[in-house]
Amino acid sequence: MNKWITLLLASLALFFLANVSALFLTDVTTSISKNNVIIIPLYGVITIDNAERGLIGSNSVIADEVVAELKDAEKDTNIKAIILEINSPGGSAVASAEIAHTVKSLNKTTYALIRDVGASGAYWVASATDKIIASPLSITGSIGVISSYLDFSDLFDNYGVEYQRLVAGKYKDVGTPFKDLTPEERIILEKKLETVHKAFIDEVVANRRIQQDMDRITTGEFFLGTEALDLGLVDALATKEEALEIIKKDLGLEDMNIIEKKKQQSFLALLAQQVPLSLGRGFAAEVLDRSTEQPAVRIEAR
Amino acid sequence: MKEVKPPLRQPAPFWKRLFAYLLDLALINLLVVYPFRDQLKQYSTYAVLTSSVQDTTLAVIMFIVITLTYLYFIILEHKTGQTLGKILFKIRVVSTTGTLTLRQILIRNITKPFPIVLFVDTLYKFFSKGNQRLFEKFSSTQVVAQP
Predict the structure, then answer these.
(1) What's the confidence (pLDDT) of residue B49?
(2) What are the pLDDT digits (tens) for A69-84?
(3) Which of A11, A243, A251, A254 has the fewest CB atoms within 10 Å, counting from its CB?
(4) Which residues of A9-29 are buried (b: 16+ CB within 10 A; e: fewer)?
(5) Residue A65 pLDDT > 50
């Protein structure tokens, strides 16, 4: 048989098989329970993109991915509610705000389930949900903003390394670790932190309608689950199992099917993400100096 | 009686094999992955590429896609010694021991649906004297340029 005819016939057969399988799968997926709730994990530091994971890789919450998952869950008519299972110390203020904004825009009931830690930026996200359930001993709150960095200038002096300052714009290198921060520069940085902090507080206050103990809540102090309940930062204390029961009752469901989107980083997955990424960006830059691609100062809600 | 020597087979250049594979992947995507577009919409590209989501539907889709990918390579190489990519780049699979058998084709294609495993499989060719992937060595096959 001519090779082109064989190719055509084989292609048609495969295409037919794939389409039949897809149709069958559609039938199967639509026949499953409509009382689904989806658990989306927010484990690790909240970041904008996976470039911040580094070569070795670590658990991180990438804003774009979470936003996409939330939107997918919103579109799925079989999903009744969305639970954000949080175990995160926070992270990028921008990434946290983006996730929180998406959570608020959803038309479905949303829950935050704080496990070990749901602090700072992660609490920002949690506050955007309809109900926050935390483990009694979890760490939450920490409504503050941080932008600390190591100042290497004295170390450099000891080794005779000098920072040659070449800037156009006198505040261009504010926050560089290679020179002391001037009082003027410190004021500038603190003002910016205040701005982010205020936005954070405004958001939490609006989301949670908190009116009491504002001075204590906004100091950046972290609170245990029990303290957070007293302060109105969370709505209920429960273990994960108890929390799911609470949610089931809230939604008035007799049976609730839980879809857990678990992120497990296999070695190959890590290879798939890290190798091309690292090669593409330059191995040396990845290992030695990632600061060249980032601004000197990072403002983080963590 | 004069002995007739088989014609010398020139191993296919690496670039031709790479582009042939990419072309096959593109066709497989069209034939085998595209029909599942509606089901795959609920997963982010990241989740699908890294298989980081534990989900039965996704697992079933992956299983079907992998099986059909195998079928693509096995049927075509068994029947013609060539896939679309190989036809267009004028290369073909041959046995180094005689006639190409189904068993040889099954072994040589084990790594095909998994690009990362295939990459490791291909690395062997750069560290050995021959011009074969590791599973080509196992299956006593090689890809040659057509005269």
Answers:
(1) 55
(2) 999 888 888 788 999 9
(3) A254
(4) ebbeebbebbeebbeebeeeb
(5) yes
Burial class (CB in 10 A: 0-12, 13-18, 19+), A83: buried
**A116 three-class SS:** strand
The three-state DSSP-derived secondary structure of A191-249 is HHHHHHHHHHHHHHHHHHCCCCCHHHHCCCCEEEHHHHHHHCCCCEECCHHHHHHHHHH
Tell me the CATH number at A227.
3.90.226.10
For the question of whether the overall pTM of this predicted structure is more than 0.80, the answer is: no
The domain total for chain A is 1
CB within 8 Å: B32 and A273: no
- Nearest-Cα residue of chain B relative to residue A3: B80
Cross-chain residue pair A262–B53, CB shorter than 8 Å: yes
Q: Is A272 on the interface with B (CB under 8 A)?
A: yes
Mean pLDDT of chain A: 80
Question: Nearest-CA residue of chain B relative to A21?
Answer: B64
**pLDDT given for residue A6 in this prediction:** 87
- Residue A16 DSSP code: H
* Structural domain includes residue A93: yes
A283: in domain: yes
- Asked, for residue A252, whether it belongs to a domain, the answer is yes
Tokens of A195: 């701005």
3-state secondary structure chain B: CCCCCCCCCCECCHHHHHHHHHHHHHHHHHHHHHHHHHHHCCCCHHHHHHCCECCHHHHHHHHHHHHHHHHHHHHHHHHHCCCHHHHHCCEEEEECCCCCCHHHHHHHCCCCCCHHHHHHHHHHHHHCCCCCCHHHHHHCEEEEECC
Q: Which of residues 56-115 of B touch A (CB under 8 A)?
A: 57, 60-61, 64-65, 68, 71-72, 75-76, 79-80, 82-84, 87
CA dihedral A68, A79, B41, A276 (to 10 degrees): 40
* Residue span of the structural domain in which A93 resides: 34-143+213-301
Inter-chain contact B35–A11, Cβ cutoff 8 Å?
Answer: no
Give the pLDDT score at A49: 77
- This model of the complex carries an ipTM of 0.80
Least confident stretch, A80-84, A88-92, A193-197, A210-214: A210-214
| Whether the predicted pLDDT of B51 surpasses 50 | yes
Q: What is the pLDDT of residue A122?
A: 94
Model pLDDT, residue A171 = 83
Task: Report the alpha-carbon distance of residue A115 to residue A86 in Å, rounded.
Answer: 6
